Amino acid sequence: MTDKLVVKNLFKVFGPDPDQAVELAKQGVAKDEIYRQTESVVAVNDVSLSVKERELFVVMGLSGSGKSTLIRCFNRLIDPTSGEILIDGESLTNAGEEELRQLRKNKMSMVFQHFALFPHKTVCENAEYGLKVRGISRRERREKAMAALEAVGLDAWADAYPDNLSGGMQQRVGLARGLAVDPEVLLMDEPFSALDPLIRREMQDELAGIQEKYKTTIIFITHDLHEALKLGDHIAIMKDGRFVQVGPPEEIVTAPADDYVSAFTHDVDRGRVLRAESVMEAPVTLQAGKDTASSALARMDEAGQDCLYVVDEKGQPAGYIRRAMLADLSGDTKITDVMESSYPRTDPDRLLFELYEQCAEGVPVAVQSEDGKFLGVVQPSQVFTELVSDETATESQDKAPAGAAQ
Ligand SMILES: Nc1ncnc2c1ncn2[C@@H]1O[C@H](COP(=O)(O)OP(=O)(O)O)[C@@H](O)[C@H]1O
Ligand SMILES: [Mg+2]
User: Fold this and answer.
1) What distance in Å separates the CA atoms of residue 259 and residue 126, rounded to the nearest whole number?
2) Closest CA relative to residue 74, chosen from 60, 95, 55
3) Does the beta carbon of 35 lie inside 6 Å of ligand 1?
4) Is residue 118 a part of any domain in this protein?
5) Is residue 307 within 8 Å of residue 380, measured between CB atoms?
6) Residue 247, H or E segment
7) Same-domain check for residues 228 and 282
8) Do 216 and 100 reside in the same domain of the chain?
9) Could you say which of 222, 242, 268 is where a domain stops?
10) Does the Cβ of 45 fall within 6 Å of ligand 1?
């Protein structure tokens, strides 16, 4: 996949003396001290990143860490003080007015935390807004807005007015407005932060599907680590204008770059970050129609496992056999006569903690794609190990003396 958005050494300073402030920042002087000396705020401090096409890149940081300033530089709502921004390899920092207009029109849209809808326009007219600004014909506008409303589950409300919608639904209209223009890059600045927890979780769950449908690259901002871990392909942790770590969720949790990041992540439940596909292994299998009790036993001994899946001629699971089920059988018993055909299964995206109950019987969980393809198995022992190691990690953190380094 090619790079969609590349940012190199970006700085944004607010205040009277940006050049001096950047100079001090480059020397490693702290944000507060720079403000004391120059009365200028270094909001974005030497940020570099690259986001691949169709990636969901999350920037996570506390309030005031510079997230909004950074994302506003991407569509030049804010002019960076120095550094470079490239979209599809083309410089955005040198773009003139007309180029910028084209860029905002054709490539990017933005969704905010508080999305102001027009109260006297219908839901559909609100969703059409970005298209109207772009001079798209009425018919095409309606078509695209309706598709976007459908994507966010609001097509039935197209002719209603915002007043009749809940806060969560209004936020969905905001998202539909952003999507209707079919942006190559969607900038989302804490779009779910103002929502009730349940609605918020619903929106989080739906976002991946929406992104898939619109094949868009998303830069998503949040102050919530759990939201970041749930949504991000890559996550940047931002502090005082800087990126302190960039990596996939698993890495942020298992290998925090410094004390700041580990303070955030130490109480994160690894079972809620690691997914079935990241811990599954290739299954040792038995063939339906071929294997017998004796060949099954031999295979178990060879693999050092007590439970194996039986697959049909297409390679899809038909059931499983445990060692105990083979006792007292004559060796030539067909495996399909004695196998258990209802088996625990999961899709590859499922988080480990969700597999806990399915693991209770000790049978490996079959990981299958949507179309039934057998991708691998998750061993119950692995699920239990992750969940337990998580507890011990938390315990040892608790036992460390207060203020101890690391
Ligand atoms: N227009 C502005 N003028 C001066 N300072 C600003 C302005 N906008 C933001 N800041 C400062 O820049 C820093 C980053 O702010 P912001 O990007 O809004 O952070 P976040 O979105 O992470 O909460 C903060 O210290 C904030 O006070
Ligand atoms: Mg902000």
Assistant:
1) 45
2) 95
3) no
4) no
5) no
6) strand 242-247
7) no
8) yes
9) 268
10) no
